[in-house]
């Protein structure tokens, strides 16, 4: 698939004005394109703040630190200052009003691994247009700050990029991972969807199909054309490789997008009539760069020759988690002092 964003890189289009050559050195490689949906970037943030960002997105940029999460924010109080030093060293004009601050948390407490709980991002406000253009174009920055190694994505709120991951499939142990078995599984998925009334129904209403005069069969065909399977062999807690079904998102609208995912995930897939595919939501997620297309151990960023960022962390392996947590009166686990209003 030529338009598969998982194979694309940042630095698309004409290069914007570049930083002053005497700036703090950073890695200038063309990195893999980051696919972090806005809803995830804004997750865990004070709703008033995310509303302000959504209503004026071009004023802000998300700064997403590698290893981001509550633990990162707690243990790196100087991160915003260090990033600002880098940005100021670029010497763009009119940086006087620029501000970088960690996203204020909502008070709902944490979900999932507290080490990587959202919010992940810092919010950059009022960067001048040239700097803004350069940040979004380069996308990923790794550099050495006074406090050590640092890395972040700079992501625009004005363009939504959706990852193509639809679901993960855990094959029976012993299933081969060659092209032949993969295409057998993919054929099963496509055929099942082809006959599924709910899928046929939603396929008729996809963004592209609405504007085309096609038969129902042609529309269903179009909606499955981009589906493919990718093998992930290094997912930390699984010995057997995981298959990920990927396909072009068919809806820009969040609600329809999730309905589309739900229909595909909840179908029953039988390979050769007897082997049932164990389907999960996309469980792969990189705790380092927050991509859902690969596991932490597969993260491509630290393998770049000139990478200056910190080492990836894997979170749940940390034995001290229970020690850090305290019990609030309601008996709920409360991980960090300033999140809890229980
Ligand atoms: Zn990654």
TrEMBL record:
Residues 1-22 are annotated as: Disordered. This is CCHC-type domain-containing protein. The lineage of its organism: Eukaryota, Fungi, Dikarya, Basidiomycota, Agaricomycotina.
